[in-house]
Amino acid sequence: MLTGKQKRFLRSKAHHLNPIFQVGKTGVTDNMINQIADVLEKRELIKISILQNNFDDKNEVANELAQGSGAEVVQIIGNTIVLYKESTENKEIQLP
């Protein structure tokens, strides 16, 4: 689990990122979860946007993505989710 201080640090890092994935009307798929897990291994911190045509609860979408990819939800703001997962091979972010 991330502490409040670590989440604050990660939010500041994520501020400048653009969303890489979009969750549309089909919702969360296994393929999407696998791709997100791969990208998290390379980047550690990513943003995902939820499109207008997705009517699922954004907290449920965030939790589903986080559990499927083994990541932590850093923030849900508007229709954007920020996920973090410590990389095993490409570790760049040093948490406070």
What distinguishing features does this structure have?
alpha+beta; 4 strands; 4-stranded mixed beta sheet; 39% helix
**What's the CATH superfamily, by name?**
YhbY-like
Structural class: alpha+beta
What fraction strand?
Answer: 15-25%
Q: Please give the domain count.
A: 1
Name of the CATH class: Alpha Beta
Could you tell me the mean pLDDT? 92
First CA to last CA: what distance? 13 Å
List the helices and strands and how they pair.
Elements: H1 4-14, E1 21-23, H2 30-43, E2 45-50, H3 58-69, E3 72-77, E4 80-84
Parallel strand pairs: 1-2
Antiparallel strand pairs: 2-4, 3-4
InterPro entries: RNA-binding_CRM, RNA-binding_domain, RNA-binding_YhbY, YhbY-like_sf
Pfam families: CRS1_YhbY
Protein name: Ribosome assembly RNA-binding protein YhbY
Report on this model:
The protein has 3 helices and 4 strands; from the N terminus they run αβαβαββ. It has 96 residues and is an alpha+beta fold. The chain has one domain: YhbY-like (Translation Initiation Factor IF3, 2-Layer Sandwich), CATH 3.30.110. It is globular, with a radius of gyration of 13 Å. The two termini are 13 Å apart. The relative contact order is 0.25. The model has no long low-confidence stretch (mean pLDDT 92).
How would you summarize this macromolecular structure in one to three sentences?
This protein is of the alpha+beta class and 96 residues long. Helix content is 39%, strand content 21%.
